[in-house]
């Protein structure tokens, strides 16, 4: 979810105003995905690198996250949405860690959509913690399934579609292992402007693609072929 700061700057507002509007956009996209029948939606909210931002912006984002957990959980509950948070929680305030656990527990039985918030998340952190878990488990012969089962999002299938807003064409240390075969979609729209219509455009683009997973076009079943 990129472009909050630029959205605010264009309006001569402080960066944090962009983050507030970013939360509104996230709420709308969650609703849109629920309506579309999307099973897994993962939002990259805060990366392991984002701690390097000015202290007051980091504090604001943490406060926004904490308050969103409080204000949104009933809405998630009403819409049968399960919340999960992935990332390294060690640097979060104890109050935030408690809130996360409470929201996850509260929504644990919901079956409509799994909403994952990646916070203090980094793809390299994830692969390393999985590798360390393998070591701790005494696994010496590592295969893909063994490593994948220790990743933070082992409960979810690999993503079909990756969307990055804000014009940058980078993965920026998101789900580096699981994105190996994802369709990548980059848009100049700033995150606070990303609405249901913008999501539709991303999905249309996804549908026009042919996912070959290394095979040739001719090998694919008719239904998976493009055009
Ligand atoms: C949101 O956008 C990303 C977060 C870490 C919350 P940015 O804050 O990176 O916005 P830009 O890139 O400065 O526009
Ligand atoms: Mg940015």
Model description:
- The chain has two domains: about 5-120 and about 160-225, Undecaprenyl pyrophosphate synthetase; about 120-155, no CATH class.
- It is about 45% helix and about 15% strand.
- It has seven helices and five strands; from the N terminus they run H-H-E-H-E-H-E-H-H-E-E-H.
- Helix 1 (about 5-10) packs across helix 2, helix 2 (about 15-35) packs parallel to helix 3 and helix 3 packs parallel to helix 4.
- The radius of gyration is 18 Å and the shape is globular.
- It starts with a helix and ends in a 20-residue tail after the last helix.
Going by helix content, strand content and strand pairing, the class is alpha/beta
Order of helices and strands: HHEHEHEHHEEH
Helix % is 40-55%
For the record, the CATH architecture of the largest domain stands as 3-Layer(aba) Sandwich
Largest sheet: 3 strands, parallel
- Rg over CA atoms, rounded to whole Å, is 18 Å
The CATH superfamily of the largest domain bears the name Decaprenyl diphosphate synthase-like
Strand content: 5-15%
Indicate the CATH topology of the largest domain: Undecaprenyl pyrophosphate synthetase
* Major sheet: arrangement of strands: 1-3-2
Total tally of structural domains: 2
- The backbone outline, from C-alpha atoms, is globular
Q: What is the top-level CATH class of the largest domain?
A: Alpha Beta
């Amino acid at each position: 979810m990129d472009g909050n700061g630029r959205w605010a700057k264009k309006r001569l507002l402080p960066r944090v105003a962009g983050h507030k509007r970013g939360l509104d956009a996230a709420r709308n996209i969650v609703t849109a995905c629920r309506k579309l029948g999307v099973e897994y939606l993962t939002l990259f909210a805060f990366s392991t690198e984002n701690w390097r931002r000015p202290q007051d912006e980091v504090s604001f984002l943490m406060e926004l996250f904490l308050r969103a957990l409080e204000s949104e959980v009933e809405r998630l509950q009403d819409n049968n949405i399960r919340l999960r948070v992935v990332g390294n929680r060690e640097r979060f305030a104890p109050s935030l860690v408690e809130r996360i656990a409470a929201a996850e527990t509260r929504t644990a039985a919901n079956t409509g959509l799994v909403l994952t918030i990646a916070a203090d998340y980094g793809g390299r952190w994830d692969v390393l913690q999985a590798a360390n878990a393998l070591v701790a488990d005494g696994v010496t012969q590592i295969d893909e399934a063994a490593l994948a089962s220790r990743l933070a999002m082992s409960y979810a299938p690999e993503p079909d579609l990756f969307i990055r807003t804000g014009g940058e064409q980078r993965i920026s240390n998101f789900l580096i292992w699981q994105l190996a075969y994802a369709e990548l979609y980059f848009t100049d729209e700033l995150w606070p402007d990303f609405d249901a219509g913008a999501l539709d455009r991303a999905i249309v683009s996804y549908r026009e693609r042919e996912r070959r997973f290394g095979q040739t076009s001719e090998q694919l079943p008719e239904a998976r072929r493009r055009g």
